[in-house]
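hiii so my PI (J.) wants the whole complex modelled not just the main chain, which honestly fair. so below is everything: two entries, each one labled with what it is. i double checked the lines twice but i was tired so who knows lol
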Amino acid sequence: MSYIRLVNVTKRFGNVTAVDNLNLEIGKGECFSMLGPSGCGKTTTLRMVAGFEDLSDGEVWVGDRLLSSPKKHHYTPPENRNFGMVFQAFAVWPHMSVYENVAFPLRLRKLPAAEIEQRTKDALTATNLLKSANESPASLSGGGKQRVALARALAINPDVMLLDEPLSSLDPHLREEMRFEIKDLQRKYGFSIIYVTHDQSEAMALSDRILVMKLGVMQQIDSPLDVYNNPANKFVFSFIGVSSFTDVVWQSGAACIKGDNRPLPQGLVVPARMQGEAVFNLASRPTEIRFTNENDINAVRGVVMRKAFLGEIIDYLVKIGDQEVRVQIGRRDPGPETGEVCYLHFLRPFWYKVDE
Amino acid sequence: MSTIKKDSGFGVAQIILLISIAVLVIFVAWPVLLILFNAFFVDGTFNSSDFYAVLTEPETFQALKNSLIIASMTTIGSTIVGTFFAWLVTRTDLPYKTFMKSLFLVPFMLPSFIGALAWKMLLSPNSGYINTFFMETFGLTEPVFNIYSYFGISLVEVMYLFPFVFIQVCGALERMDPTLEESARISGAGLFTITRKITIPLVLPSIMSGALLIMLYSMAHFGTVAVLGIEQGIYNIPTLIYEKIHQSGGSFDSIRTGTVLATVLVVTAALIIWAQQKVLSRGHYQIIGGKSFRPMELKLRGLRYPLLFFCLAYIGFTILLPTVVIFLVGGVSTYGLPLTWENLSLDNYKYILFEYEVTKDAIFNSVTLGLAAAVITMFAGVMISYVIVKMKVRGKGILEFLGMLPFSVPGSVIALGVILAWSGKFGINLYNTVWIILVAYIARYMAFSLKANSAALEQVHDSLMEASRSCGATMWQSLKDIVIPLVRPGMISAFFLIFLPALRELTVSIMLYAPTTRTIGVAIYTLNEDGETVMSTALAGIALIIIVCGQMLINHFTKKVSE
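here's the output for the full assembly
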């Protein structure tokens, strides 16, 4: 059941269209991520949901409440939307104690004193901050500050939690830890999350569904697994995970990797839609290639340019013709040495046109 | 292989440290010490009851009270005006905001004593143009406004001092992370609550710091009170010191009263600086954010253009009107003639620039003194800042303490101090020469140089110098080839920060001038005192032109440097 609805949402800044005709439906209690490179419109979308940006066109709904609609001249200001929001730069108020920061939204709602105290303490307990309640947030670490921001957003028991790159200011180790804390809190409180990030592993780990955006246009909305396994287009393929794009050309009717005059093997079938393309791409992920032998019907011949031991995995750069392909295998798997000829089996090849 | 040699006894570092200490002691510490000594010691013995007696004389006590009254009114007024305009140009949708912001910095260029001179001509009770206009047109028997009053003096000071608060608050509001306010908004707070609970508390340290700066400036401010107050017997501390020294020709009693008043100023200044440090360090929140969207703007709606008009009217009334009056009055042959086309000419300006010895001397003196002071202080400032910011030598603590001194010694104190130090009692007599003014300027502007240079030096990471040393350069070579080129922007800004104010200096030079060593400020002031109003005003007009050209030169240079 859809709870948050964005209908034909468009945002223009002067001549630039930051978000172009976006339609979204997010369920109650769902964790929904918006993913894309900077400037793709994900933060602008979030700010439109929050009410910090007005819409150029379209409507934003939560439940049966219309929040923004320029056509109907309707706009609910952020302070009346009952959302929780956490920002990248923490935005905890340095002139108030941790406790006062968290109690602030409750005081604004003119709740009875006993309830304010109870709910503040609950939020502080949930975020492991009870012992720092009377400290200044300035004395806390980055992770501590972000917990204060989370507690403050939790205190009002929001319907929707908006998270704007909340973990990007933290160091990698802490980032991973906080990720799961947010997920735990969501399970406990049951709010919906809209999560903006440019970090794909963060989006993968947290989300029920992911929206991938590029230059204001929606590319794909799917579960993390589907976005990874069935990318909707070349952009999504290249944005999610590590990828190699290899140029392929036609030579006297046979598809060859550029700079190499051996035709591609029987097992590697070029889809019909690439007929007539002068150059097109064979796209692959390093973990979905394995080394095989000369007699395999899938074998593509290459030379190992570089072999790097990265701990859990071994990373190869293999040259085929004048193209380079990255291959990763487990550290216990047998593999060739630098300078040796090798044979690659592309387990899950994707085919894209160059300008796709 | 050479062994590492411990710095034994005397090296380059020690020499630089000693020279630095010597500069600050000779130019700043010693004159101040002489003032304290003369204030508390009578005939070589400590005598605090005498100090108290001087302090409670009706005349001195009144001057202390006046300084406090005027400074308080000025501070409150400037803080309100400065904060309001800062908020208007940073947090609302006022039209032409960037242009208005630069317009509000213009008052900085107008020396307040020249402003006071203009307001005297506009609003003096008997002959001010505005007062006589209203009295003649509407048959009023009383003047509309008497500028010769506490309120009048404070009003004029507010007009030219509020940018201190304006700049500080603008900076804080612009640097403030907008998400601090946005997170209050999403928590359910309206704009009014956000302003009250979040924005104002967060910029309060900046407001306070600007306010204290104005308090310090106004307490020790000579020009406005001298032009507008003395006629009505309103003296503050600096004007009373001047009056005492000036009238008695340096008698013991007047020097003593001067030193007692100067001591009060030094102590007050030290207290204010201390309070400012305290406010800034305690309230120094990290409110600068990462990625930031535009901050929220209050929609003024129907008030947009009325408020724009109000700002323009404010600038017109406080800057344009006085400037126009200065140039017009400078153009008539006798003060009091109606300001009509046929009465106006450029004769006064020509006379001042090419014939009149007094003003020609004054312009020459101010320019050469300003250049000399700026060059010397710039180099001394680089050296001292370098020791304080970068060097690790023993005894640096003394220099750090001495380096704080120039910030808290007001101009009239410095003037009195150099009189005590350099009028022959200690073998060298510079009194009645330009050299005594130069010495005083160096002391007065050392703070500016230290500030600009240490800010530039803090940007130069230690590793740059270390890298040069590891390439085989000596300390001198590294200084010359690495450090100096990198701090050049700081030095240039120090130069202009000294040269321009020195051109319009009044407080120090008025206590030290001799008939042939008048500066522009002194000439304007004394000509006005002697009743040569039109000459004084015409010179003020020329001073304004020089200042505006100088400011444009600065803007040009600093732009080039930052590119």
